[in-house]
Amino acid sequence: MLQFELKKKENNARRGTLHTAHGDIQTPTFMPVGTCATVKGMLPENVASTGAEIILGNTYHLMLRPTAERVARLGGLHKFMNWPKPILTDSGGFQVMSLSKIRKITEDGCTFQSHLDGSKHHLTPERSIEIQHLLDSNITMVLDECMPYPSEKKDVKKSMERSMRWAQRSKDAFTDRDGYGIFGIVQGGVFPDLRKQSCEALTDIGFDGYAVGGLAVGEGQKLMFETLDVTTPLLPENKPRYLMGVGRPSDIVGSVARGIDMFDCVMPTRSGRNALAFTREGTVNLRNACHMDDLSPLDSQCSCPACTKYSRAYLHHLFKAGEMLGAILLTWHNIQYYEDLMKEIRLSLEESRFEDFANAFFEKNAGLKRPL
Questions:
Q1: What is the pLDDT of residues 19-61, one digit of tens each?
Q2: Of the four listed, 276, 333, 364, 372, which is most buried by Cβ atoms within 10 Å?
Q3: 3-state secondary structure of 15
Q4: Active-site residue among 144, 251, 261, 264?
Q5: Domains of the chain: which residue ranges?
Q6: 356 an active-site residue?
Q7: pTM here?
């Protein structure tokens, strides 16, 4: 069982602490993505140095390689990857839908071909929970089906209702213990009545936390926020809320304003590998020639090595030369930026000035109109 302490609220925005067997997590929080038991390009201790308190691993990838059974024999995921802090594992459902060459979904589960070698696998709610238990995940996610956007309402309804049945089976298969928990996942696309039905089904089952899935799949920020507006008020206030796969900094600030506590996204790491940096002055593409002779730091307010030890000119050179150090430094910077953003959000909530913080953030970042 996980303990969540809600410390403060400002309108719908929340400041809390989630207690786990591997340490406390201050919320709102951002989880760097360590899909295959590594945050790409980063040592675990460097990830921790950014302020990250929890990372995400993935059932689908780890079940295929090196296998959950092998990770368990080697001491569990924390020991295996030298990350002593909390870990959340995605159930594998999204990857089955998006990466598998051939897949078939039935009431029992998903049969699919590995994207690695074409081997056939069958993932059920019970097997997903078993894998996450073998990995020693602090936060286990139920197996669900994530529909693409756009999809017909009748198809979304059928998928959501099956996901709710899978949620019950996932909960029944979960082994409850102190410092560990299982989250349900709200589905229903962009249809308010389906989201309401999903929230009611999950709260009737009862979970340690509630994730909002099926967003950030192409529906756009406005529709995502509108869906959150009707979804988060239906979730228990005393449980953490996790928006899966989100997102851009403005997505995060706007979603915190709508009551979300936890986030994950590949954007900071993937962007870092592709020369795109998030800074307090907006995004910066280090491949652009304007940085060739620029001796200024990437972000003068950032404490990461990319900003304190190297110039924009050097970072530009690394990417033009195809040197892996460029991706490493920019990944480090982007994770630092995201963790600094979460720290600023938490501080603004503690000081009852989140509204002012959010207004200033949206005004400064590319003149965005604040969608709150």
A1: 999 999 999 999 999 999 999 999 999 999 999 999 999 999 9
A2: 333
A3: strand
A4: 264
A5: 3-265, 274-364
A6: no
A7: 0.97
